[in-house]
Amino acid sequence: MKLVLSFFIASLTGFGFWWLRPSAPPVPAAVLQTDPLPALTPLTATPRARFNPTPASRKGFYNIDVVDDFTVPATKTITFCGAGRNLHVDRDWSKLFRRGFTAVDQTRMVGGQEIWTDGMPPAGWRSRLKQSQRSLILYQDYFANAFKLDWARNGEQATNTLYRATARNQAARNTIYQAGMELRGGCVGFGDCPPGTMISTFGKIFLDIENDGVSIGKKQDQANLYTYLARTIKENVSPQTEIGSIAPVPHNSFGYSRASDYMAEPDWLWNTPATHTNSSRQRGMPDDLVGKRFADVADFHMAGTYYVYPDFDYSIAHTADDSRHWLAALLGEQEVNMKLSSKKRIAWHWLFNTQSGEFEKSGKAEHPAPPAIAEGMSIFYWFTGAYGVLFWDDHKDLVPGQPTPADPGLRGLGNDRPYACYEHYIHGLWRLFKHHGDLFNGRETYLNEQTECSYDGGKTWLKYNANQIKTRSLPFVRAIVNGDQILVAATQAYARPNQAGQVMLRYVQNGYQFYTTIDLQGDQIYLGRATMRKGAGRRS
């Protein structure tokens, strides 16, 4: 086992010594099945919708009607900031909310009906969207353009950035306070400002600033600014508005799911309490911010990962500790972060590879998630106990049938992308929530790494985290228990279409003695449910 060295002073002896800290969690020991296997209870497989995915040759289009109406439970939230709402919104504006999504980002709203953008709305006008259906993403441009906060583009400016106007800068508008305070005008665009005042009435506000990396000497100022920004926003929004950020988060694995991630401590920007620096008072940091952390103010964090092309490549190996693996990354990020913070989790989901010059075929976002990955994202993610998703795309409106650009540098962008991946994603949501939404009522238990499986026909039983499953090239299985109901998702990630597999699962807790066998085919996403019976007998 690899080890890292951590030095500390033993206060009782006065001697210093090296303390060996493991760089990976211990591998769970196999539990031997000493009793005969009890009778197996079959799972009832969840139906799949019958639809013909939009062919790859038809670019810039997806069919939102590959499934029928369904909604997600009130305990979950999915914000649409994807592409192509324009394909169906004029015919049925509510269709999005009957295909699993619970909210829509401001940039995807219909002007004049869902948001008023041309001055003050007429007297009596009100948005057709409920507060819970409204979301706002604040990117760097909001701070850098409107308020001249260069800090938003370069965190190294943290030591020069004004918290709020001071005696020497009484008319300053380029302050964190001003950027947060002016959000209160958000209610104007929805026609629901409280009498005599203004306050933001978005349901959720997401921060996407991405300036978190700074040099060591500026970390404290950076932590102060993020905490002050979050608090200022909270002071200018309605009590029902939730806020969170793509960064800071407790831990970011950047899509790798390494064993060492499971030993991570909370990230400094998430966990550092605010305290005064040499110049913070002169720049307006209030004394009552001292001791507060970003983690204390945010309502949720956004641990998650975008994929790069290797994650979609079925022709390469994905089993090394540092190999990229779509499902190990999706699950591992949540497994790590849920241990570091009890805050709600909302991940960003994008169904194309993100742009990265570090990886082959990842320079442009031209590769859609393969069908099993798109569907698997929308099923397995919810087995982690996560609260929500921000479904995002770098393109907004789609115009189908556009000719392929002659310039190779313009290909694979926006209207020139195949969007059937959206159909597979929505299909996954439909399979999960149309048929099993009743299980997500707040009384469910997410087993995560405590999902107990056998890979040798029931002789031994193991509980693995996502990294351990990946590096052993085993089928992934995750389960949710609610009363006497058990819901199971399983897949052989990256398997060949004709590759068959089998895995057993058991749940022997709380008086239940449930055993079942799952048959797997290719890398399809299996979803099944059973009613468990109370059973006698001891646990092996």
Automatic annotation (TrEMBL):
Top-level taxon of origin: Bacteria
Protein name per its UniProtKB record: Uncharacterized protein
